[in-house]
Amino acid sequence: MNNYIQIHNQRICDCPKTHISCIEPRSWMQNQIGVWEFKYEDRDIRKKEIHPATFPISMAKKIIELFSHRGELVLDPFVGSGTTLVAASDLERNSIGFDLKPEYIDLCTNRIAQVKTNESTKHVSVNDDARNISNYIEPDTIKLVFTSPPYANLLNRPRQNKSRRVRNNEQLGKIEQYSQDERDLGILSPNDFENAIYEIFNNIRPLIKFKGHCVINISDIWMDNTRIPLHINIIRAMEKAGYELRNTIIWDRRNIVNGIGIFGYPSNYITMGTTFEYLLDFWNPTDWKSAKN
After folding, report:
1. Which helix (DSSP H) or strand (DSSP E) does residue 230 occupy?
2. Least CB-packed of 32, 145, 172, 273 within 10 Å?
3. Residue pair 209/286 in contact by the 8 Å Cβ criterion
């Protein structure tokens, strides 16, 4: 007997069956440009002492609008501060998020409580390992996965602020890692990180509807004078798990990055990861209903 979370996952809109979402043609055309820029709003969390790595509500809303219909189910396996659930609530989607840290689940719950939620939708945050998601969600119910996983061991070291114009600030020398929990992807080497991504997304693929999308926000790491292309680790892991890469989108962060210093000058040219990140869009190519038949 299962203990699946009871949550709605069907459309409440009148869109044609073949439409990927409720999005209008004009917005569709704008989204075809593969470089996106976003602004933060007052509801966004920017303080690193609350959460060290957040993305704007506007980004989550754009992805949710593009890849789901009103009433459908959105999952964030690494929900953190709860931004995905806040955006889903704004857009009349149902949503579920998971995180290892109870503090983040409390934060997520409090943020949702402040949103004027439509009575037809539900938003649930669960304090558990993403590896256990299949214990909570019924197969073939998720329309969209949107998440930003811990970036391997990027934050698990004292900050040196080499890319900052003013290095001696409140972040210098701090370790901003989420936790030292052995299950936390943020303490893993890139290879172990790739294996963990494979394990998690391989387990949840049966939960995702046919052609349901998974969008993963990721940045590469510059560490010890070496570029570590985590976006390639993600692609390898996802393809191994049976997903198909559909689109690569660049999140242009230049409008929200201030005080950039001269990094590597004059002998070592390095593109700064703070100025851009990847949004990797995959889908599930398996029709589970047809496969059963």
Report:
1. helix 230-240
2. 32
3. no
Measuring CA to CA, how many Å separate 189 from each of 89, 116, 147, 176?
Answer: 35, 41, 20, 17
Which residues are CB-neighbours of 184 under 8 A, at least 6 positions away?
Answer: 100, 150, 177, 178
If you write DSSP's letter for every residue of 38-107 in order, what string do you get? ----TTS---TTT-SS---HHHHHHHHHHH--TT-EEEETT-TT-HHHHHHHHTT-EEEEEES-HHHHHH
CB 241 within 8 A of CB 145: no
Q: Can you say whether the dihedral through the CA atoms of 64, 68, 69, 75 is positive or negative? A: negative
- Reported as a single tens digit per residue, the pLDDT across 175-192 is 455 566 777 887 888 899
Q: Which amino acid is at 286?
A: T
The secondary structure of the chain in percent helix, strand, coil, rounded to multiples of 5, reads 30, 20, 50
What does the pLDDT look like over 223-257, one tens digit per residue?
778 889 999 999 999 999 999 999 999 999 989 88
Q: Which amino acid is at 57?
A: I
Nearest-angstrom CA–CA distance, 133 and 260: 39
Q: Decide if pLDDT at 142 tops 90.
A: yes
Type of residue found at 290: S
Going by their DSSP bridges, the two strands 142-147 and 208-218 should be labelled as parallel
Dihedral (C-alpha) 155, 160, 161, 166: value to the nearest 10 degrees? Answer: 150
Quote the pTM value. 0.89
Q: Is the pLDDT of residue 146 over 70?
A: yes
Q: How far apart, in Å, do the first and last CA atoms of the chain sit?
A: 23
Domain ranges of the chain: 25-292
Q: Which CATH number fits domain 25-292: 2.40.50.320, 3.40.50.620, 3.40.50.2300, 3.40.50.150?
A: 3.40.50.150
With CA atoms as reference, report the closest residue to 38 among 257, 273, 234: 257
